[in-house]
Amino acid sequence: MTENSLNENQGIEAVSWNRKHLLDIDDFSTSEFDLVMKTADVMKDVLSRPIKKVPALRGKTIGTLFYEPSTRTRSSFELAAKNLSADVVNLAASSSSIAKGENLIDTVHTLEAVGVDVLIMRHPIAGASHLAARYAKSSIINAGDGAHAHPTQALLDMYTILKHKPCIQGLKIVILGDSRHSRVARSNIWGFTAMGASVTLCGPRSLLPVGLTGQHAVYSNIKLETDISLALDGADVVMALRMQKERQSAGLIPDIREYVAQFRLTSERLAAARPDVVVMHPGPVNEDIEISSEVASGPHSVINEQVSNGLAVRMAVLYLITGGNKE
Known about the structure:
There is one protein chain. This protein is 38% helix and 14% strand. The protein is α/β, with parallel strands linked by helices and 327 residues long. It folds into two domains: 5-150 and 308-322, Aspartate/ornithine carbamoyltransferase (Rossmann fold, 3-Layer(aba) Sandwich), CATH 3.40.50; 164-301, Aspartate/ornithine carbamoyltransferase (Rossmann fold, 3-Layer(aba) Sandwich). The strands form two sheets. It has a five-stranded parallel beta sheet. A four-stranded parallel beta sheet has the order 2-1-3-4, with helices on both faces. Strand 1 (61-66), helix 3 (72-83) and strand 2 form a beta-alpha-beta unit. Helix 2 (30-47) crosses helix 13 (303-322) and helix 4 packs across helix 5. It is globular. It starts with a helix and ends in a 5-residue tail after the last helix.
């Protein structure tokens, strides 16, 4: 396969992608979503081959800059870059000049000086990737910034749903758990509603976001629900979010046992959803806290599929961001 064969033989038109950065999906058009999904299909085909590598990004250098621990996202991006034949530079904040006080912009410029073309960044502060993009010559991909956004997670979640449903429009999607502090939930809300789904956010009142419903809300197809039985009634897709221990220490929930009793996704509760319901989780999973082990490993679960689809989607994003190798 030549560098250009992904374009010529598979119908991908990289020139129709005009974004230098991927910071969020809140302003994506439906055609952009469709392009990512179609490109991910091509990458999925590449991953099904005995040799899971193409020279599409040969000569490009992809950098990862993570200020927070990550296993799934970081390894997924690294494998995605290597599968496209790019060189990869990994930088962890705890083992670099960042620990000595180097600021974000200086770190970005340092990585650019050694030839990084695309920088994949995770940061605990919301908006950090937008700040980096303002000063960067390279492309910035947001791999999670605070409680703000996680665009590639939302894209892979959409891609996974489309492997089980003909379209997203008209689906009832339930996001269960701490959606107030979840960057995964925020990006998924944008993506799901933009593609025509109705989204129900379910959890304790203290863990539900404010300002998404009511007279001045951006979208009319979002519902907040504190009763899990009502939320799951007729659901097409249910996504359980990881319950983080800091929510309990902050007093946002009285006790983890009470949360489990009222909001854990169990087989009995899932029975209220549609027979062909799809169960998701962005990981890592706290089994028997936000979701029972029976449901997590059951016939409706696509949790492992989300991980494998994440590789194809991130290959697609890297390919589109760089425009492929046109040399």
